[in-house]
Amino acid sequence: MDPFAALADPVRRELLRSLTPGPTRVVDLAAAHPISRPAVSRHLRLLVEAGLATVEDRGRERHYALDRTGLGPVQGLLDDLHAPARFAESALDGLDLEVRRTVRDRRTTVGTTTGTTTTEETA
Prior knowledge:
The chain has seven helices and three strands; from the N terminus they run ααβααββααα. By secondary structure, the protein is mainly alpha-helical. It has a three-stranded antiparallel sheet with strand order 1-3-2. The longest helix is centred in the C-terminal third of the chain and has 26 residues, at 89-114.
């Protein structure tokens, strides 16, 4: 199953959130959700098929865990959708320097032509 299709269901997204702290038994996951245990098991099976969860048999119990590597395609899409910067941040440093220099020059010019000193000049 495609990870995007698996994530489309709110129950499966909630199950993935429940798996974030670590491996969890099906019984514990079913107790935390208002749906039946077989329904939780079906959702978990789909999450395993999508590569978003792993399952390990420990005796008679099945423990499910989040598999973060399955989120790679989703993270890739989110990275692609993130807007790239329009310009380099270093360009802003140059602009900031020029604005400060212009403000300083104007204050100096106004102060010398009027013969007054403002509090901003002395600061």
